[in-house]
Amino acid sequence: MQIISALFVENFALRQAPGPSTRIDLTGAFFSMAAPNPVPVTIDPHLVVLIYCSPDEPGNSLLEVIFRAGPSEDDEQLARNVSPFTVEPGKFTYRLVRGELLLTSYTQIFAHCRIATSPWHLVPLTLLPPVATESNSNNG
After folding, report:
1. Which end of the chain is less crowded, N or C, counting CB atoms within 10 A of the terminal residue's CB?
2. Residue 120: is it exposed, middle or buried by C-beta count within 10 angstroms (0-12/13-18/19+)?
3. Residue ranges in the chain whose pLDDT is less than 50
4. For the chain, which residues make up each domain, given as ranges?
5. Does the domain spanning 2-128 belong to CATH 2.60.40.10?
6. How far is 71 from 76, CA to CA, in rounded Å?
7. What pLDDT score was predicted for residue 20?
8. Cα separation values, 114 from 4, 73, 76, 83, 134, Å
């Protein structure tokens, strides 16, 4: 099995198409986000992981996602999710992973994703300072 794609997204929907075939509508894919409040702040980005199982493989495995403070396997672990999944051989499946991450600085973190013991697939996410709204920046 292999990870085809892993992205942070705002919205995710499945729909049927002729065939029958399934379409995946991903909207608002992002690699950075403004913090909702000044740090320290907890964010909960949604990561969608698309997985393909070749026809000659069994359709059972584990998806592991570790959110780390950097790209190295030695970087601090912020959160971890392990979920078993089943997919019909020769088909695709997806997993949605919601990280609940307490960040104390505006920084870049990485979602380290893998199936079973395969190599890591990294997805970066940069936390930016909050955006000043007109009501916050207008002193009167």
Report:
1. C
2. middle
3. none
4. 2-128
5. yes
6. 10
7. 80
8. 11, 12, 17, 11, 42
